[in-house]
Each structure stands twice: as C-alpha cells, then as structure tokens.
Amino acid sequence: MPSALPDGEPVPADGALPASALAGAAERPLGFYLHVPYCATRCGYCDFNTYTATELRGTGGVLASRDNYAETLTDEIRLARKVLGDDPREVRTVFVGGGTPTLLAAGDLVRMLHAIRDEFGLAPDAEITTEANPESVDPAYLATLREGGFNRISFGMQSAKQHVLKILDRTHTPGRPEACVAEARAAGFDHVNLDLIYGTPGESDDDWRASLDAALGAGPDHVSAYALIVEEGTQLARRIRRGEVPMTDDDVHADRYLIAEETLSAAGFDWYEVSNWATSDAGRCLHNELYWRGADWWGAGPGAHSHVGGVRWWNVKHPGAYAGALAAGRSPGAGREVLTEEDRRVERVLLELRLREGVPLSLLREAGLAASRRALSEGLLQAGPYEDGRAVLTLRGRLLADAVVRDLVD
C-alpha cells in the first residue's frame, strides 16, 4: 500500500455510497483487506504506509497503539456493514496485510476475522490470508491463526542470501522463511506463499537462482516474484543517489524474470499473473484476483483503499487520525472518486492483460486494436487466444507488459 494518497472528492461522514454503487451488489464477489500499519523496523526499500513504534510516539497517543488496534479496526468493519446494507452478501476473501500483521497477537488477527464473519458471514470456501514476517511467528502463533479460520499465509522471504537481505534492511536470517513454510504446513495451512524480490543492488544471477531454489525446496504452492522498485524518499533511494550501492538496470530485471520463469516452470509452477506463479488453480490468490478483475472489496485500516460498484475511496493515512475518526463516529475516508465507464474499461485492460487469461479484444478501441495487431506480429501476444478474441501475453510480452498495455489503452 503506497504511502501517497490521491486527491478526490470528500467522503460523507457516515461513509454512505451512491445508490449506483450498491445496485446489483449482492451478485458481485466481496473481499476485505485489513491493513495493519505497524513494523518493528523500516526496510530501506519500503514506501508503504507503515510506522515503527518510534515514528508513532507522541503523534497519536493511545489511539495509535497496537494494543487496541483490533478493536479500532472492528469499528470500521461495523461501519462497512452499515454502508453496504442489509442484502445478504457473504465475504469471499479476507487478506490481512501491512506493515507486519503478525506484530499483533494472533488472537487479535482472529478477532478481526471473526468481526467480518459476525457482521457479514464468510463463504464456505472463503480464502483467508495473512502476510507474515518470518521472525514474527512460531508454531504456536501459526496454530492459533489456523484454528481461528486462516487457511492461507504469505511469508516475506525476499532472498536467501544474507548480503541481499542486508541491502534491503530485512531482519530475518536466511533459512527462517523455509522453516516457516514447514511450520505452517504442520499447523494445517492449505496454501502457503513465499514473496521474493529480484534486482536488488549487489545481487547476482547465482544469488537469484539460490533464492529460487531455496524457496522451491521449502514446498510452497505459490511464489510471488517482484522486481525491486526503488521509490523516491526511501533509504535505499538515498543510498543509490549517494553512490553507495548501484542501481539495477532493466536488462538485469528481464534476465532475472526469465530465470524465475524457467526455474518455477520446471518445478511445476504455472504463471497466472505476471508476477505470480502457483502449482494449481486452487493455489492462486483469489483475493488479488478480486483486485485484478475489478470486483468489490472494502479496505479497512489507515490508508487502505476500497472499491465498490465503481466507487473507489481511501482512508486517512495516520493511525492516530484513523482511530480518532472512528472514535468520533465518522468514516475514516479521506477522499473518493466515482469511476466513469471509460475509467473502468481502461482499468480492466490495464489489470486483466497481466493475467494468464488475458483481456477480451472487445474492450479495446480502434487504436488499441491496431496496437494489438502490432503486438501480435511482434510476438508479444499469443496467436491462439488472439484468434479466439483475447489478448494474452507471451513470455516476451510479459517482459514488456507495461509497454504493451500502454499501447492497448492509448
């Protein structure tokens, strides 16, 4: 969750949505994202809306405390129930992210999940995920989560090499994420993801291969691999600007992606989104697919973004301001926008092109169709799906996904 918030129109004090956003809502999937904004330390590459204890000291008092955060977030879940109305609508996915959600007590995460269950109900096959830092969980913690209803967990591994973790300011030791996978399996988790980052300054091809091999050896059924993006204002950006570490170029990122695709495919993983691979359709992250397919989700927590029926809104960033709004009986929303049909069409192209199923050619305008024909001739789109009316990226197209999608929507 990036720290910068866009501009937008004001959110009503009661959080009410336009009638158009709720029309037909009962027929659309609904997910919840719960943002936990706390971290023990700040990673050098992180630009997310997160806070260490030192950063919060004196800025929000008890309102910003981790100790009562579950209660505060539950207040927003109750607000969501009022805003979304009385039509029966079970929640299909819940994703707890951050920050480091597992800095909270396991019972607090379960309490927030149960608040959603009590207010909305959970679908019988609901996907319930939390992110976790490897050093912030143990077998007892994982057992509490599993008993409380969580069935999917995502560990931030990033790299298996100590010198790469040091550049990223990650605090876990190599080998701990792999041990966490075994502990999660022993606790009964159905699905386990490992997050990896490639292109860190100082990382070699062999380092990246070692990270992939270590991740696969742990036995997850899902792997996410993201190119490092150096955001302005981060510690890593400042170090690069001072010449302390080198900037990784796009060619290196492309080579690392090809290594990932080769290694993961050989191990039985299939890509289903440009940066995500799973061993089966059941292992895909359904919550992220809600985002990519423009479904409805409510984002609870400081800075969290939501989308319901073409209305997108975002909460105030600071935990103290967030808790203060809810304590005063107001929506914590900072701004919102009502998407036009054209906005939604463009977003569908932007997001769905990244998926294995691709995007219907019927969503493209004349210029976009012409661009798609060029992309097909250049080997960026697959010929078979194109004949069936869909734009689906080839491996080369995945390397150039951002450029391809720009051409299709322009």
Strand and helix layout:
Layout: H1 19-22, E1 30-36, H2 53-56, H3 69-84, E2 91-98, H4 106-119, E3 122-132, H5 139-148, E4 152-158, H6 162-168, H7 176-187, E5 191-198, H8 205-218, E6 222-227, H9 235-241, H10 250-266, E7 270-273, E8 276-278, H11 286-292, E9 296-300, E10 305-308, E11 311-315, H12 319-327, E12 333-338, H13 341-352, E13 359-360, H14 366-377, H15 383-387, E14 390-391, H16 395-399, H17 401-409
Parallel strand pairs: 1-2, 1-9, 2-3, 3-4, 4-5, 5-6
Antiparallel strand pairs: 6-8, 7-8, 10-11, 11-12, 13-14
Helix pairs in contact: 3-4, 4-5, 5-7, 7-8, 8-10, 14-17
Which features would summarize this protein structure in a list?
alpha/beta, 40% helix, nine-stranded mixed sheet, three-stranded antiparallel sheet, globular, 14 strands
Tell me what you see in this structure.
The protein has 17 helices and 14 strands. The chain has 410 residues and is of the alpha/beta class. The mean pLDDT is 91. The strands form three sheets. Strands 7-8-6-5-4-3-2-1-9 form a nine-stranded mixed beta sheet, with helices on both faces. The chain has a three-stranded antiparallel beta sheet with strand order 10-11-12, with no helix packed on it.
